Amino acid sequence: MLRPGPADRAGLDADGLRRLVRDVRSATRGPRPWCAGAVVLAGRGPVIAVEEAVGWAVRYGAGAPEGAGTAEAIETAEGTEVTETSEAAAGVAAAAALDGDATAELPPDQRVPMTTATPFDLASLTKLFTTVAVVQQVERGALALDRPVARYAPECTAAARHGLTVRHLLTHTSGLRPELPLYELPDVPARLRALRTEAPSGEIGAYVYSDLNMLLLQQVLERVTGRPLDRLIRDGITRPLGMTATRFGPCPDAAATEDQRRPWAKADRGMLRGEVHDENAWALGGVAGHAGLFSTARDLAVLCRTLLCGGTYGTARILGPRHVDLMLAPPGLGFGVDQAWFMGELAGTGAAGHTGFTGTSLVLDPATDTFLILLANTVHPRRQPPDNGPRVRAATTLARAVVAGPAGALS
């Protein structure tokens, strides 16, 4: 099981780890920093060699921006954490939205310091938990990857009509568009009807990252098991692994996210702290297959260690090794595999992970038995042009800090 330890015990270079922390700290400084605050955690084998908090969990209050861009201009920035090209395109729209920003910085005595125990809105890291819950049902024989979604959730009529399978959803090859503005519809029944009747707009079999895939998988899971997603994740993942800080919101002590108001945002919600940032997850009650979970870096390290150990952690087992391999092997089921656009030099060796729009990311590398969690509130107080530079630098620094030789000597 995980425990803190020095760099040499983890098979990592101490100077490299100091550089990692220094770089993350620098990302919280300057007139427009990458983030208000962050927690970085890195380790190898069972050893957590770095666990540092920098900056502020709450640094800003609600501002009074003038001349900000419209919600329509920002909309293209959502759901785009998957490719460098799409991030660059989204950054153009987001940059326009930041013009005239006059968000209020709180006096120092009103700010909330970041700590290693601060929970974060995980945003799309929630997808990893939904993926594990799906693969658990595959392992138990309740789901089959290549059977139609309609077999399990016939109410998903568009998926039935187009022959979409569970695998299509897990691998983002369903042809569904990246996002559907469910938050604009009047109530949850209308939002679910829109989701279930949304037809693919692209080529089925071609990769297009879409939140709708995970929302449909939530429908499948809840239909097959008769249990809501939050309970499935709690009973099947977080409780057995002792991840007591991981839960769907509200989470009042979380790091703040966005001052979400029109015209630059899609809803008038004010400064968000402890409420899910994603508008569709919010519109669906806070529990969604693509977003809604809050967690800490230490809890996410447990998930990383569990997957690196073939699905077990201590005496707990959430998956068998064969199904962990099924999930993490290229092209990956729900996990991005070897995505150099945010994994830096950790990519290319079988590394897997994901990012979240709020500033979260996670990478685990089976080849070197290393893991890196970087949780940052990059949308506090306002979403910015997407920038993966700090993520890439952190992953590359960790990759270069790995000392030659197996991590098995770490005990």
Can I get a quick summary?
With 411 residues, this protein is α+β, with helices and mostly antiparallel strands.
Account of the protein in words:
By secondary structure, this protein is α+β, with helices and mostly antiparallel strands. It has 16 helices and 15 strands. It has a single domain, classed as Beta-lactamase. Strands 1, 2, 3, 4, 12, 13, 14 and 15 form an eight-stranded mixed sheet that branches. A three-stranded antiparallel sheet has the order 5-9-6. The chain has a two-stranded antiparallel sheet with strand order 7-8. Helix 5 (126-139) crosses helix 11 (229-241). The radius of gyration is 20 Å and the shape is globular. 54% of the residues are buried.
What is the overall pLDDT average?
A: 90
**Oligomeric state of this protein:** single chain
The number of domains: 1
**In terms of structural class, how would the helical and strand content be classed?**
alpha+beta
Give unreliable regions as ranges. Answer: 64-102
Q: Which CATH class applies here?
A: Alpha Beta
Q: What is the 3D shape?
A: globular
The CATH topology comes to Beta-lactamase
> Which architecture does the CATH hierarchy give at level 2?
3-Layer(aba) Sandwich
Provide the descriptors you would attach to this structure in a database record.
411 residues, alpha+beta, Beta-lactamase, eight-stranded mixed sheet, three-stranded antiparallel sheet, 16% strand
Strand and helix map with partners:
Layout: E1 3-4, H1 7-10, H2 14-26, E2 37-44, E3 47-58, H3 71-75, H4 84-97, E4 112-113, E5 120-121, H5 126-139, H6 149-152, H7 157-161, H8 166-170, H9 188-197, H10 211-225, H11 229-241, E6 247-248, E7 256-260, E8 270-273, H12 279-283, E9 293-295, H13 297-308, E10 312-313, E11 316-317, H14 321-328, E12 336-337, H15 340-343, E13 352-356, E14 360-365, E15 370-376, H16 389-401
Parallel strand pairs: 1-3
Antiparallel strand pairs: 2-3, 2-15, 3-4, 5-9, 6-9, 7-8, 10-11, 12-13, 13-14, 14-15
